Amino acid sequence: MPISVAIVGSGPSGFYTAEALAKSDTDCQIDIIERLPAPHGLIRYGVAPDHQTTKNVSRAFDKTAARDEVRFYGNVDVGGDLSLDDLRAMYDAVVIAIGSPEDNKLGIPGEDKDGVIGSAAFVGWYNGHPDFVDLDPNLDTANVCVIGNGNVAIDIARLLVKTRGELSPSDITNDALDAIQASSITDVYMLGRRGPVEAKFTNVELREMGKLEICVPQIDGGIIPDAVPEDMEMSDRDRRLRDKNLDTLREFAPRAADELPKRVHFQFFAAPREILGGDKVEGIRMERTEVVDGRAVGTGEFFEIETSLVLPAVGYRSGGLEGLPFNDDWGVAISDEGRAGDGLYVVGWIKRGPTGVIGTNRPDGQQAAKQILEDIAAGSKPGREALEAAIAKNGGRIVSYDDWLTLDAHEKAAAREGAPREKLITVAAMLGVLDGA
Ligand code: NAP
After folding, report:
1. Are 239 and 382 contained in the same domain?
2. In terms of pTM, does the model score above 0.85?
3. Are both 146 and 293 inside the same structural domain?
4. Considering 315, 341, 363, which residue would you say is the last residue of a domain?
5. CATH number of the domain that 36 lies in?
6. For the chain, how many structural domains are there in total?
7. Does 278 share its domain with 156?
8. For residue 67, what are the domain limits?
9. Of 6, 63, 230, 431, which one has the fewest beta carbons inside 10 Å?
């Protein structure tokens, strides 16, 4: 009897786990279970729509899904349609690969005002995630404040100032594309609580900000150090990368504010203290900071930016899953290097927090596969058969990988000129295509 493995979540960490198990010498039956009809998680719904080459990894996932050992069960909600305990009773091993879909909070007054939208929701909206299609952000504002200096913050800033011509070849949804083009946005503030040396965005992403058609980067050159200070501890690679960021920012410094119609302002040493306004955002109050022992410390000097849209991009967390040992303070599962219980494993962001690139999940998946094969000598639970019976009993509509390929072809055929696809943005629309509605 093969070892039956259920993988919950079909993003990179889930697929890499499936790949590693399928390529092992042990006979495994691997089922990838996904809440949405469409697979690929962060690749489809997180990676920026204008970074299509990053999305090419989904071709490798297609190959994994096509293997005899692997089956995809889309439109099945673990925690809704069936519980984690149900799944553990059915499968020899269950791997949780559900990522970190929730936003970290700023923890400042006014954060719940209308017009503060976390990056998970905002990125989900322009990427056509069914949970966020109704977001309808108010883009009728000259200034937008993006909080954070990571790659997500820079993705958001870039998409807000790109032209139709620049965005059209991406897979941003038509709705988001039209909304951004109709917006009154002229100035995007990228607000970092620490300095240029500590910024987390990578150099390729930063350089893109200097090559935009109608938007010029703005930075006060006086705050950019010549190099990363010698006494800052980091790897040589990290030091090189950060020095490159400083070089790029230095190139931005002389550019004139009126060179192009729009601007992205890199403002460092600025921490958010309060979101201003009534029910709706009218501005943000920031405090100047200095970095002491690596931490941003307020100086007591404040300033305000008028805006009706504040987009915190300050990292993600997981909300957990009933039955999964979970550290609510950190927003990650409790595990011993990925082992979270008898026959229970975690991989990817739910295991180690939201860091790293797509490829970082590969060794994670390989490690989980190794652990499963070390811990479980032979299969003893029914797996797939029991899952299918449970879903049939609930009257659920499973979306298979072949179904997904049908949706994929439909989306590609519906693409605007030059774009890779036009996403189906609701579950009903996806099921409608499959069932001929
Ligand atoms: P991130 O890289 O951890 O950046 C989070 C940013 O938010 C940091 O600048 C952090 O500042 C700031 N921050 C956190 N709490 C804050 C607060 N209370 N007030 C003000 N600022 C605050 O996270 P991310 O941008 O969400 O990205 C997640 C992961 O995905 C990263 O590994 C990222 O590289 C990756 N990613 C990669 C790409 C790409 O390769 N193109 C694209 C998108 C995402 P401190 O440093 O001071 O804490």
Report:
1. no
2. yes
3. yes
4. 315
5. 3.40.50.720
6. 2
7. yes
8. 3-101+318-434
9. 230
Atom of ligand 1 nearest to the CA of 315: 26
Taking CA atoms only, the protein residue closest to ligand 1 atom 18 is: 106
Rounded CA separation 63/72 (Å): 12
| Ligand 1: residue whose CA is nearest its atom 17 | 106
313 lines ligand 1 (CB under 6 A): yes
Q: Are residues 62 and 210 in the same domain?
A: no
83 and 109, same domain (yes or no) = no
In one-letter notation, the amino acid at residue 202 is T
**Tens digits of pLDDT across the chain (437 residues):** 999 999 999 999 999 999 999 999 999 999 999 999 999 999 999 999 999 999 999 999 999 999 999 999 999 999 999 999 999 999 999 999 999 999 999 999 999 999 999 999 999 999 999 999 999 999 999 999 999 999 999 999 999 999 999 999 999 999 999 999 999 999 999 999 999 999 999 999 999 999 999 999 999 999 999 999 998 889 999 999 999 999 999 999 999 999 999 999 999 999 999 999 999 999 999 999 999 999 999 999 999 999 999 999 999 999 999 999 999 999 999 999 999 999 999 999 999 999 989 999 999 999 999 999 999 999 999 999 999 999 999 899 999 999 999 999 999 999 999 999 999 999 999 999 999 86
C-alpha 45 – ligand 1 centre gap (Å): 17
Instruction: Tell me which amino acid residue 314 is.
Output: V
Q: Is 200 in the pocket of ligand 1 (CB under 6 A)?
A: yes
What DSSP assignment string belongs to 361-412? Answer: HHHHHHHHHHHHHHH-SS--S-THHHHHHHHHHHT---B-HHHHHHHHHHHH
| 114 and 59 within one domain | no
Candidates 53, 206, 314, 330: which one to mutate for ligand 1, based on the most atoms within 8 Å of Cβ? 314
* Ligand 1 and 106: CB distance under 6 A: yes
